[in-house]
Amino acid sequence: MAAPVTNDQSWFFALALGVSFLKCLLINAYHSTDFEVHRNWLALTHSLPAAQWYYEATSEWTLDYPPLFAWFEYGLSHIARFFDKEMLVVQNLNYASPATILFQRLSVIVADVVFFYAVKECCKCLREDKGKYLLGKPSFILTVLLLWNFGLIIVDHIHFQYNGFLFGVLLLSIARHFQNRHFEGALLFSILLNLKHIYLYIAPAYGIYLLRCFCFTQSNADGSLQWRSFSVVRLVTLGTIVLSTFSVSFGPFIALGQLPQASMTGGLVQEFQHSVLPSVSPLATLVCTVLSILPALFRIWHRPNGARGFLRCLVICALGSFMFGWHVHEKAILMAILPLSLLAVESREDARIFLILSITGHYSLFPLLFTTQELPIKILLLLLFTIFSLTSLKTLFRKGGALLNPLEATYLLGLIPLELICEFVYPLTVWQKTFPFLPLMLTSIYCALGVTYAFIRLYISLLTCSDSTKKIKTQ
Amino acid sequence: MENWSLFSLCVLLGLTSRWAVSFHSYSGAGKPPMFGDYEAQRHWQEVTYNLPVHEWYFNTTNNDLNYWGLDYPPLTAYHSLVCAYVAKLLNPEWVELHASRGYESHSHKLFMRATVLFTDILIYIPAVLLYCFYFCDGSSKQKVATALCILLYPGLILIDYGHFQYNSVSLGLALWGILGLGLGWDLFGSLAFTLALNYKQMELYHSLPFFCYLLGKCIKQGLIGRGFFQLAKISLTVLVTFALCWMPFLSDPKQPLQVLHRLFPFGRGLFEDKVANTWCSLNVLIKIKTLLSRETQLFLSFALTLLFILPSSLKLLSKPNLWQFKLALVNSSLAFFLFSFQVHEKSILLAALPVCLVINEIPLIAIWFLLTSTFSMLPLLVKDGLLLPYVVTSLAFLFLSLYLLSALERSTEEELRLGLYRKLTRHWLPKLNLSRIIKWKFWFSLVAMAALSFTSVWLEPPAKFPDLFPVLVSILSFLHFLGFIIYFNLVQLMEPQRKKSQKKTN
User: Fold this and answer.
1) Residues 6 or more apart from B179 whose CB is under 8 A from it?
2) What's CA A269's distance to the chain center, in Å?
3) Hey, which residues 112-141 in chain B have their CB within 8 Å of chain A?
4) A230 forms bridges with which residues in the sheet?
5) How many angstroms from the chain centroid is the CA of residue B200?
6) At what angle do helices B363-376 and B348-357 cross, to 10 degrees?
7) β partners of residue B271
8) Got the DSSP string for A365-413?
9) Where do transmembrane segments lie in this chain (chain B) (predicted)?
10) Mutate which of B3, B5, B21, B109 to test chain A, going by most A C-beta atoms within 10 A?
11) By the 8 A CB rule, do A203 and A340 touch?
12) In sequence order, which residues have a C-beta less than 8 Å from that of residue B496 and are 6 or more positions away?
């Protein structure tokens, strides 16, 4: 490129700045009820004492995130004062003045700085970063795949959420484990759990990995467990870190006797009776989820593959809980796609799985933005991300034939007629009135195929990967 | 990465930013009774759909010319007619005669925005891509970077997708004309430019360079022989195109006269509102609008415009190649903008297009000009509620183009095309470091523009001068444009023998 090649980091800032400008342009786009949810939380953390945060129920959107996130909203509310004081009044339900919108959107954009830092750290963890020119370097590709991730932009900056900030903490924690700074990694993950409890789904991966690779300081020559190398010190330190984080977060509420209230049962208890297929209970889903991730956990216990094996297990846990969990949001697919990006720029097989999972997963987010005004935006951005990921990963792994086999390519191409039918043709037919949810069902079923396929392939790659890379010699 | 993927990413980014800007307000939104340009375009759909052709430009009971009467040439009217047919399919209320006045709804806005996007994709964007592909020096990455910068030019995006107009059609057609001429397809180029002229009469700003370039080429081919035939063919193409466009109006001699009367409203005075040209700026000091008679104003404006376009046109006539052609387009449109009659601030886009075409050769000055042109439209944009997209697109354009085109590194005197000028002035000012001065001026000007943008939005003007900020913006922009027209004239007139020739020079 004409860009100065001598300055290594300028391209990173250009990409970060570019995506931030795009996010600023989307300030006036459609926002979902999540916008009101966060405004309400700003209001109640600002106006009420902490003792009442989890009791306040004027709005239907009660606080259902862990305490650290509440403190985050509290911090934000102090800046919100300068934009529009009215948004901090709890009674002002659905208050959305231009200043409120500006403030909330900017807060997401600014909070993404954490994400930028995490991406930079992840780039440092790549095994090799050589490329003939800038566009072919793994770090460049990874940066674009993460910073310009379609799902994050759509969910955070249109639908409205703070996932960028949270995924930043997650990716930073992963990067720290790659860099063998395990205490920091554990601390960051504990903080993350106290910011949003959904990350509990990947806690097993962390637990098993840290226990196996960190608390047992050495492995035998063939990679199996060396029981005698167990380090109590490490276990105790890790435990202290985790417990102290939780106590800082939940402490005040335990002291006030509010723990039951803060258990965030939102959505977990709603059971539905289905009319045609058998009804599913929460317990059944929990059992299915655990069963689906158990083999992966056994694998990294038995034959760990260092940080990369841990990451693979993490993605499997995320995908397993996405597929079998209770009351899962379609946004949870991002928990699998984003960490997988790291693996995708390093291995051919992972790149393949990433392409299928990301394109399918991103397409499955389309129903989130159902307004006509946002239709061109979501199509354009998905095309942007898809074309980039396809061509850059193809170029990166051009040795060894095509990246996707014909079946996979056909499946992905099938998304085009699916989109045309669901959003262009179907609304013009008579069935739109009688079966309005049919397009959604079609989308879900079609994408489920891709996600399941990716899940299976990921499992195969985990169970069959050998410890060909360097032997694990933890500190 | 392959070329096609880079180009498509570039187009997708351009389209995304365009559609994202379209979320914002448009001209005259919610402001009865007159509304704004958006309502004007809707009204033209209503008029062209419901009334017969011979009534379009006339004041009748059904067609009140005082309420946004048609004042563009016939091609705009035909375009409105086509849009009206689509509108009728979607919702007849949008083009109901009389009843649809001031119609505003979310779905209608989406429809109107979609029509702009459609013509943009059809006409302007392919022209930009082809231009960068064929006429940009450097590697393919350089071409894509140039294409991206041109597509992200804020002025055009904000006016077309914000304020609401169809400049991408006329500018796109003019660009096809330039492409045709550059590739040696003179007839195609003339056809495209004539269509552009028949879409918006402001394209006359570009007409003299087109004329001089083609005439110069024909002369070079020999006025007796091939050159003459070529000239004849071009003239025939132009005449036939005009005839086809104006055909419905040629049945009655009163028709074309009335149309011309609508297109060139000399009765409306030297200037309207605040515009960054000479007359408006001069008016601050000397009230020339009231001091001089209408005839004197016309004469003065004509004389000064001619004075500034003659040298550039004559140079082009003598040396008809693409580089000279582009520079002549810049000089001609700037001269018209600064000195002509009844200029609107949006007409700066006519100068911005050719400057976009030289962004690869003189990045720093081109970027500077393009930012200034966007800044000069600030009062209009603020009035339309487009402050946020203005700030975001201008900043994005500034940083991305400076970065992608390495504008600050490519600013030596040679690269600024001022080598010959420097050699001449070396006698008087030996120690002058033009490059450094220009860079300092660039930063200083950016700071001034940012400061003025900020104050004109945040502060209240004093009661005695309610128009203080728009006037300051106009004067600052005017001074910049004066500097630019001098610079571009210098570059064009003092061009030395270039060792590195353009890829396709004719």
Assistant:
1) B127, B130, B131, B134, B189, B192
2) 24
3) 117, 138, 141
4) A216
5) 11
6) 160
7) B343
8) TGGG---STTHHHHHHHHHHHHHHHHHHHHHHT-TTS-SS-HHHHHHHH
9) 110-132, 144-161, 173-197, 230-250, 323-341, 348-371, 387-408, 440-459, 471-490
10) B5
11) no
12) B419, B420
Tokens (6 digits) for B44: 């033209």
Cis peptide bond N-terminal to A4, omega within 30? no
Cα(A337)–Cα(A318) distance, integer angstroms: 9
For residue A112, the one-letter residue type is: D
In Å, what is the CA distance from B198 to each residue of A449, B59, B264, B370?
Answer: 54, 22, 13, 26
What ipTM was reported for this prediction? 0.92
**A305 three-class SS:** strand
Which residues on B lie below 8 Å from A387 (Cβ)? 5, 8-9, 12
Could you identify the residue written with the tokens 């003025």?
A: B452
Written as six digits, the tokens of A62 are 């009660």
- Environment class of residue B106 by beta-carbon count within 10 Å: exposed (0-12), middle (13-18) or buried (19+)? exposed
In angstroms, the CA A223 to CA A192 distance is 31
CB < 8 Å from B in window 365-394 of A: 372-373, 376-377, 380-381, 383-384, 387-388, 390-392
- Tokens of residue B99, six digits: 């009843």
From CA A381, how far away is CA B399, in angstroms rounded?
A: 21
475 residues of chain A, pLDDT tens digit each? 444 444 568 899 999 999 999 999 999 999 999 999 999 999 999 998 888 888 888 888 888 899 999 999 999 999 999 998 888 988 888 888 999 999 999 999 999 999 999 999 999 999 887 777 888 899 999 999 999 999 999 999 999 999 999 999 999 999 999 999 999 999 999 999 999 989 999 999 999 998 888 888 777 767 677 777 788 888 888 999 999 998 888 888 888 777 666 555 444 444 556 667 777 788 888 898 999 999 999 888 888 888 888 999 999 999 999 998 888 888 999 999 999 999 999 999 999 999 999 999 999 999 999 899 999 999 999 999 999 999 999 999 988 888 899 999 999 999 999 999 998 888 888 888 888 888 999 999 999 999 999 999 999 998 887 654 444 444 3
Both tokens assigned to B311: 């040298």
The first and second tokens of residue A394, run together, are 């193809």
Q: Which of B14, B7, B239, B21 is nearest to B129 (CA)?
A: B7
Task: Report A:109-168 residues touching B (Cβ under 8 A).
Answer: 135-136
Q: Which residue of B has its CA nearest to A131?
A: B1
Q: Please answer whether residues A459 and A296 qualify as being in contact, where contact means their C-beta atoms are separated by less than 8 angstroms.
A: yes
Name chain B contacts of A395, Cβ cutoff 8 Å.
1-2
Longest Cα–Cα distance of chain A, Å, equals: 71
pTM: 0.92
Tell if the CB–CB gap between B13 and A135 is shorter than 8 Å: no
Residue A65 · residue A197 · CB < 8 Å? yes
Instruction: Tell me the C-alpha to C-alpha distance, in Å, between residue A420 and each of A41, A424, A427, B152, B394.
Output: 39, 5, 10, 29, 35
Q: How far is CA A237 from CA A182, A215, A226, A251, in A?
A: 11, 10, 20, 20
CB A215 within 8 A of CB A235: yes
Contact (CB<8Å) A376/B9: no
Dig out the tokens for A223 from the structure: 């990679």
How do residues A381-392 score in pLDDT, each as one tens digit? 999 999 999 999
B331 to each of A144, A333, B483, B485, B494, how far by Cα in Å? Answer: 41, 55, 12, 6, 14
Alpha helices in B51-164 (DSSP H): 74-90, 106-119, 125-135, 140-151, 154-158
* CA A253-A258-A260 angle, 5° bins: 125
At residue A97's C-alpha, the angle toward residues A96 and A100, to 5°, is 80
Interhelix angle B167-183/B186-199, nearest 10 degrees: 160
Tell how far CA A275 is from the center of its chain.
33
